Amino acid sequence: MSYSEFLGMGAELSLMAVIILLFIYDTFTSSKVGKYLPITAILLLGIQTLYLAFGNSLGLGGLNDDTSLFGGMYVSTNISNVAKIILNIGTILVFTQAASWVKEDDMKIRRGEYYVLTLITLLGMYFMMSAQNFLLFFIGLETASLPMTALVAIEKYKENSYEAAAKYLFFAVFSSALMLLGLSYIYGATGTLYYTGIASELTVTPLTIVAIVLFLAGMGFKLSLVPFHLWTADVYQGAPTVVTSYLSVISKGAAAYALMVALTTAFGSGSEVWFNVLYIVIALTITIGNLFAIRQQNIKRFLAFSSVSQAGYIMLGVMSYENGFGDASLLYYVLVYIFSNIAAFAVAGAIERASGKLNINDYDGLYKTNPKLSVAMMLAMFSLAGIPPFAGFFSKFFIFYSAIETGTIPMYVLVFIALLNTIISLYYYLLVVKAMFLKDNETPIATIKSDGYTKAVVFVTALGIILLGLVSCVYDYIYNAAI
Amino acid sequence: MDNNLTTMYIYLAISGIMFFAGVYGFIARRNMLAILISLELMLNAVDINFAVFNRYMHPTVLEGYFFTLFAIAIAAAETAIAIAIIINIYRNIKNIKSDSLDKMKN
Amino acid sequence: METIGSQVILYIIAAVMVIFSVMAVTTKHLLRSATYLLFVLFGTAALYFQLEYEFLGAVQVAVYAGGIVVLFVFSILLTQGLGQNKEKIKVRKLLLALSAAIIGAIVCGYSLLTHIFPNSKYDMGGEITMERVGEDLLGSGQYQYVLPFELISVLLLACIIGGIMIARKR
Amino acid sequence: MDYSYSILILALPLFMFLTLALGGNKMSQKFAGILGTAGLLTIAVLSYMVAFQYFGMDRVDGVRDAEIAYNFEWLSFTDKLTINLGILLDPISVMMLVVITTVSLMVHIYSMGYMHGERGFQRYYAFLSLFTFSMLGLVVATNIFQMYIFWELVGVSSYLLIGFYYTKPSAVSASKKAFIVTRFADLGFLIGILLLSFYTETFSFDQLTAEGGFFLTSTSGATFLGCSVASWAMALIFMGGAGKSAMFPLHIWLPDAMEGPTPVSALIHAATMVVAGVYLVARLFPVYLSVPEVLDLITWVGAITALYAAIVACVQSDIKRVLAFSTISQIAFMIVALGVCTSMVPSEGGLGYMASMFHLFTHAMFKALLFLGAGAVIHAVHSNEMSHMGGLRKYLPITHITFLIACLAIAGIPPFSGFFSKDEILAAAFNKSMFWGVWMTVVAAITAFYMFRLYFGIFWGKEAKHEHTPHESPATMTIPLIILAIVTCVAGFIPFGEFVTSNGEAYHIHLDMTVAVTSVVCAVVAIALATWLFAKPNPKPEKMQAALPNLHKWAYNRFYMDNVYQFITHKIIFACISKPIAWFDRHIIDGTMDMFATVTNSVAEKIKGFQSGKLQMYVWIYIVGAMILAVAAIYTFVK
Amino acid sequence: MSILSIFVIIPILMLGGLFLSRNMKQIRTVATIGSALQLIAAIVLVVLFCGERSAGNTAEMLFMVDHVWFQALNIHYAVGVDGVSVAMILLSAIIVFAGVFASWKIEPLPKEFFMWLILLSIGVYGFFISIDLFTMFMFYEVALIPMYLLIGIWGSGKKYYSAMKLTLMLMGGSALLLLGILGIYFHSATDGNLTMNILEIAKNDAIPHFWQNILFPLTFVGFGVLGAMFPFHTWSPDGHASAPTAVSMLHAGVLMKLGGYGCFRVAMYLMPYATQELSWIFLILTGISVFYGAYSACVQTDLKYINAYSSVSHCGLVLFALLMWNTTAMTGAIMQMLSHGLMTALFFALIGMIYGRTHTRDIREMGGLMKIMPFLSVCYVIAGLASLGLPGLSGFVAEMTIFVGSFDHTDTFRRVFTILACTSIVITAVYILRVVGKILYGPVQDQHHLKLTDAVWYEKFSTIVLIIAVAGIGIFPLWVSDLIRESIQVISERIIP
After folding, report:
1. Choosing a second label site near A174 at 20 to 30 A (CA), which of A199, B45, D138, D584?
2. How remote is the C-alpha of D434 from its chain's centroid?
């Protein structure tokens, strides 16, 4: 029993430290000092991110490449470290976005909880991504989803918030029950829950097929893959915008990475099964997500369906697990997606807070009154749609690139379906642009005075959207970690 | 087929029936607490699976055993949160019917 | 290991569990549902005992039967007025639910039955001593679970925070 | 020999065009007119110099060598096929230079009076210069593609000049018609060029017409629809010529083209541009000789046109139209003359070539004179209709005399120039066969008839009422008339055969007395008939008209050729092709594209219901979806 | 840093300058100076290029620069030009320059307008200089998307619909393209050294025939959509009709050329086998385009629709000629691109100016404009004459080169289509003269029009620049054709077995 192994988990320990510090800070400070909580959270997380990024090269320890701890239950690699950094960046952005929200009277008393719970979900995701054992994976997953329920319900007296929370919770538990069923079959068939063990024991029988499908269904819930996505729109709409943006990017990104690790490591010998199931699921996800998005009027629902279809694109990276580009492209996609989606949610959130308006129609003529927000929103839309020179184009291209590299005709077909869907998606993204730039409005939303945090997040995300693609070092960084 | 295996199937059958009874309840019941009860059935059924597989198939190490143990804890945590939310809903709208949760739709 | 007696007991437990789990989801009275659930949970504990997982059975009884069901009962009493505790199920919904359950059951049953399990190694496990449970739970090697144990403590903490935050008045 | 100054013949008019077009608005009308005329005078002088120099040159081996004064590469398609721009001087091109510059000079002078005070006077002179440039470029072309280029340019200048009165709808539609019809013909020309050049791998005239059957050897064997490629190519090229020269059935644009100012009609639609077709055939004559079936076709087209136009001319009342049909008919004479040739040697069946060129030359002069005279008449009475004229000889003495001279010339009365040239044509036709001889003699007679009908109708007959007394035109207009009349009188005595023959050898013109006498007798009879009918006001014409109502009606309506075209363009091309295509595009093609959008949208609308907001429904879909996937996977992967 | 990158850098600097501009004057200054610099750079490029060539530099592409961009994915920022790209760059520079003047008084949001316009031009230049498939594709899409806003904000008529349709259809094309490009890339070498560099792909010539037959249609149709190939042309009439003047100019003048350029640079150059195998299908389609566009134009009543269909016809001719894959026809195709670009830009500029005055584009409601606005009318006639192929203007040389080249095929199929294509020149004359006759000539239709004024200086400047270019090519075609031919030869020799 050597507990020194805990010291090998630099990422998780440092995050835990951040959580504890924030917890103490929130609990034991007066409200006067307490108002600095947002910036403290951002700074602490920032420091932790820096540690993740540079700790190794500075010799701080705890971040060794390819550490396998606790009897192979936990593995930290360069690429998982990069994935954590990416999630951290996203979380920092969300926190920045949240800063002006938690200052509101209603939220003031719950801001401590907000930060602590969010970071705990993040911790759960860390474990989910580093897990090499389905028990740890499952606990990580639950750590990521159960506090999330509380977060969804955080504006608990708002009409939609509790409804969203209930839906999310029931759906989450139901899906984890199904996933557990699947895992139990896996366990029954292979006799172990360690990824490596499963990989060597797994044979394709009806039982394992059902197990894999159920596992996919469980993860499909987190990623909002069709047909497991139906909660998405309702929850996104009902949850506070800040939580929605966290839910739509960070949680999704973590799940995508964790799913990829699980599928490629544990279910590697059953790859033909999940490959084909995922194939159908991706095609459905991209298409159905888009079809639903077309008709949405509420911007948050709209973004929900858009994120459904984006999840399909992310999964294309999983499909190309065989080559080195798959995980790099997936993570890069997630990173770009984080920036684009947070930009969109930040703008939507700012407008919602200032005017209470959430309908796309209300955005008519927005450019006249709020040019900067409109431009940021437009960049986000273009990036999501994959228009160059914005980052979304690069991430889409790379994900298609990695998907096609497998070289089979079905992958060409799948990419083709995805490409056709980019056209549909462009249509509805342009609807937003149209509302903001093209339409005239008698009573446009009045000019919004944003505070520094909102400005910062909009600026940083917009900058990210422009630069992430053009500057190749980002992708290279991820790719070098992946190989 | 060896006897033990038959017994295992009995266990699996029980858990299976429990699980899908839970599924039935989840979809059919209107009361959120009833739905929660159904969920408990499902989780419980899965726990049985793990324990049974551990005992009958792979008894040398206790993986299923511990999975069950942790799953029970998670189920408890989940119930706590769920009940908190249900109570919150009750406080807001004075009922906990699942069909009242359809304010948000297309 | 298998004795006639234990077989008979198993069948009885099985019958009880099946009946009560079905009744738990079909009865119209919520309180009865909770009670039936309690029986099922006890039945599960009994199964664990049957499998010679005594510790597991004990935890089951303590956590589930002792904790969760009580929680259920309280919240049922809290949220249900006396007249409200009956509910009707629409036929359409019933059919939907049934179809889902039956399809699922058939798929899972088929897959379980067609899977060729190796011969049972029931006897190789031996008795689970508390020492072993303790060591495995807090050990850091393979098949030892200190990390999940620590993590789940965080999870429970988060759930407490979340639960309080939602349930408290402010 | 140095012909380097000949470049000025092309450069000057282009320069004039640019000057007048860009700076015209800044100039006074008078200055513009004088500038244009002076420029043209210079060009004319240069052309005469070229003619003197060229024809003064000694023959080599009995023929005049073609001189290529300039030839530079303009555009190269392949290694072999290059468009050169250059100046080719040979007997016919030099002859054409003289004709064009002379007539153009006359027209320039004449227009100063005729167009005096018109809005857009400067533009008019600019266009005239453009036309002169294009026409000169056409005749000196060294290769068929250069010819095509200038061919198009003359088409455009013609278009611009016909539409000079652009506020007049009839002028606009006439110009459009002229351009499109000739453009259609040019399509044939172009395809012909493509065919020809593909097989011969050259555009250049001297290679195409080189002796030794260069053309034939390279195309032998290739056939299409029963005719050799050579025949097709040459027939298509002739189609271009037929369009420009208003041969039946592509003639319909020319009568309408009379909407342009009358001097323009004189220059373009009588003397120069319309003979481009004849020139084209003459230019490629050695090649045509190698495809006799095409020559037959040419003869037939020419003969039919000649007869058709002559008949129609008999009943038209608009004097410019009569002249237009007369032009068509006369050009057809030249075409027939070329068509009846059977060899390169003038004395052995190659007479027609010389005759054709000769007639081209004389016709240019007297037809220009006729048009300019008609212009003077119109200038005086402000109308084109014969019914508004009559008895004008008193008021317009100079015009009257010169017009009469021209009429006699065209009727083929000696000693006027038309007699000599027409006589050669008839002789050539008789040489070919009796049939063609008789046919053309008849047409010649009809020519005399309608010309004198016209003459009497204008200058004799019943005097129409005039708002103010007609008066003779100013000197700028009469001087060209007089000059041209003089030329008409003497041109017949030019020993044309010395200069221009099919093979370049000198040929001494001698009259074939039988032919000459016959034709003169026929002409005189026809003139007498016209005199009897039209010299004095009398009811005889109406009676004749009543006697042959259908013929008159058909002839008057030009045998409904315009209606046929109208039908084809409006009812078939516009209504049956364009409109359906446009409809198809908007509704089927575009509709399909829109349909993708509509279908997507309506599918989105249809499936909206799945997002019902009901948690349990969601879960149902979730689990059933998962199970379906599982079943599908089991079905696929478990054998 | 090569001269080529200047074409991307100048517009980027312009974007910055526009961003900082405070008033109309500054905006105009930036736009004018920037576009003039581009034009100068383009001319300098032509001179340098010709200089290099005459100095005996026979490399396929000149001024090549290659920076590694995404190492792992073999994506480079690689630029280089041959004669064709040089010609296209010059074309773009001229049209952008004229376009700036044509939108001198654009309202509302002038700053944004110019910024989008310049962004569009970045895409165009970038596309023409790229020799890396990825950068090429990226610039291609950069050029497409500003169209949506440019039409949507500054357009007229049913602009939302048109803008959306245009964008979506073109994006549909680029979806096919992306698939094609990836396919090409992954078959670009047999030895595993995959490359995105067009020259290297061509050198390797490793794409299996089976894949060529799949990828060729993808890329060809992908680019063909932008080249207005039947039946994917319907964005063009609506799009052009709704677009503001400068945008129509740029779009018809330059953007549609991206399609043709891409067709031969990517589809045909890289997949010679499939070009031979499949060209007949596309010959039929493009042949239909030529014919169909011309006939449709005959009965339209909206000036811009007429021109749009005319563009369909002319651009159809470009693709048609490319598919004839011999040096002459392809040279003609490129010249037709130049010619069509210039004259359509001229057309759209004039239509915009006329529309700005009369507020109608319906030819039935106009007449006698020659009297009212002689300058514009004369220019319109010149544009018309160029369009119907008058010698001395650019249309003629291009069309003739095409026809002579196309006729070089002896098989009946191609012969017949060539002759059909030839007939389009007659139809062109019909619809051009119809418009000229209706709106410029004849009596004045609407008495209100009598008060209208003729062009002002910036409008005149814009049109004159274009007319000079049109006439320049028309009168001195040899240097253009020589410039293009050398580069085309390399490509056509790959295709011709």
Report:
1. A199
2. 29
CATH number of B3-103: 1.10.287.3510
Q: Compute the nearest-CA separation of D591 from chain B (Å).
A: 29
D630 touches chain A (CB under 8 A): yes
Q: Which of C135, C155, C165 is closest, CB to CB, to A146?
A: C155
pLDDT digits (tens, 9 = 90+) for D376-399: 888 888 877 877 777 777 788 888
Chain B CA closest to residue A305: B106
Residues C13 and C33 in one domain: yes
CB distance B22 to B42 below 8 Å: yes
pLDDT for the residue A332? 93
Is D195 in contact with D236 (CB distance < 8 Å)?
yes
Of the listed ranges B16-20, D417-421, E148-152, the one predicted with least confidence: D417-421
Hey, are the CB atoms on A171 and D604 less than 8 Å from each other?
no
Residues making up chain D, counted from first to last: 639
ipTM topping 0.90: yes
Neighbours of chain D (3+ CB pairs under 8 A): A, B, C, E
- A218: domain range? 3-482
User: Do residues C18 and C75 both lie within one domain?
Assistant: yes
On whether both C77 and C4 belong to a single domain, the answer is: yes
Residue-wise pLDDT for E374-389, tens only, equals: 889 999 999 999 988 8
Between CA D44 and CA C114 the distance in angstroms is: 108
What CATH number is attached to the domain comprising C29? 1.20.120.1200
Q: How far apart are alpha carbons E389 and B49 in whole angstroms?
A: 83
Alpha-carbon distances, residue E475 vs E313, E345, E351 (angstroms): 24, 19, 25
Does C have 3 or more CB contacts under 8 Å with D?
Answer: yes
- D479-495, pLDDT tens digit by residue? 888 888 888 888 878 87
Task: Please say if the pLDDT value at position D212 is more than 80.
Answer: no
pLDDT in tens, E165-206: 999 999 999 999 999 999 999 988 888 888 899 999 988 888
Subunits with at least 3 CB pairs below 8 A relative to chain C? A, B, D
Question: Does residue C121 belong to any structural domain of this protein?
Answer: no
Place of tokens 């098949």: C143
- Same domain (yes/no): C16, C53: yes
Q: Which two tokens stand for residue D230?
A: 């050579």
Domain ranges of chain E: 6-495
Asked whether residue C123 is domain-assigned, the answer is no
Q: Do chains C and E touch (3 or more CB pairs under 8 A)?
A: no
CB contact C103 to D (< 8 Å): yes
Domain that holds residue C103: 86-116
pLDDT on residue D625: 94
Across the interface, of C2, C17, C100, the residue whose CB is closest to B3 is: C2
Global confidence as pTM: 0.91
CB proximity under 8 Å: A 2-41 to C: 2-3, 5-6, 16
Give chain C positions within 8 Å (CB) of A146: 155, 158-159, 162
- Taking only the tens place, the pLDDT of each residue in D588-613 is 888 888 888 889 889 888 888 888 88
CA distance A429 to chain D (A): 15
Calculate the alpha carbon distances from D560 to D548, D576, E77 in Å: 17, 21, 68
Nearest to B63 among A153, A187, A292 (CB): A187
